[in-house]
Fold:
Amino acid sequence: MPQVINLGHTMADKKAPGAREKRGAQRNGKTAPLFAAVDLGTNNCRLLVAEPRGKTFRVVDSHSQIARLGEGLHETGRLSDAAIERAIDALQNIRKKLKQHGVGRVRCIATEACRKAANGAEFIRRVHEETGLTFKIIGAKEEARLATIGCHDLIEPNASSVLVVDIGGGSTELSWVDARAARENGFKGLLEHAPIVDWTSLPLGVVTLSEAFGHLDEVEAYPLMLDHARQTIASWPGIAAVREAMAESEAHMIGTSGTVTCLAGVHLKLDRYRRDKVDGTWLSQEDGLAAIKLLRDVGMDGRIKLPTIGNERAGLMLSGCAIVDAVWEACPAGRLRVADRGLREGLLLSMMYGPKKPKPRRRGRRGRKPAQKQAGGDDQKGIQDGG
Structure:
């Protein structure tokens, strides 16, 4: 569904099923270039294709496919053959979409699963050989920065502090943002240096937590997952200062994850997932905990039947809920704003409007070969037919 991501707004364009959005044009009559961000996570493989518009962008296409790349990683320390095949299949589908749209610039990033896996770099090389896509394995700090940029326009105008909670399949990034500095420095300042006061990457993810307690019945497992999440969050030295900041009346949290958006869908009693209803909505701790209780009470079969959960997410919802529950316990005064945006949006904004890297100087000596580009280092110029 075509969408316009607006700074300061949370609107999504509504089009008839199957309708194609006409590409915009720049003043000189040329069609605006297309940019794409590909995010390969522990559980999902996601694509976002967009064209610049002002200081924002218009979404041309989006795609998400559950690949469960990190399945079994907690036990073996390696990406399994089955997980690798699922991920490559998902990336082949994404490659087709990139070619279909004629995307000009692509940036592909991989996160926690590839950071942790002993064969992560080997997998990235195979992906390049089979799909032509060049991935960069980014660090947790960069992941936190991009998620903050992607969610920045959900920061309330009067907010003093914001805690961005990015729950992934293999880790959870918590970023304490100075909201006043974000406003004062403006959009350009945010891209150059996101005003993150403190941050952490916790070894808590919906896949890893679920697998760690997967041998137990879910009724028995939930309190144990919650206790484990509490202890992990409490181990962050910065949590006391964050709790104090979140106690201010103008402070709030932003939750960016499938867990949080699904919780919002359950709370809103949607008969199908509606991004325009979910993105930017507020979820109080009371309402959030009520939705968590409902998901626990109905069991796996009941969660599968919920229109905003379904079969693919039902098995991982409780582990995600345990993380949300534990974060709220650590910051009980924090209001939560729901974000159906994050890493990919931050990546696109950085590509379109962020500081440009200086081009390397060309050496004039005859016969010298140009330096080879490091895998995943820069944007890719379109998609080649080979690979």
User: Anything to note?
Assistant: The longest helix spans residues 81-101. The radius of gyration is 21 Å. The mean pLDDT is 87.
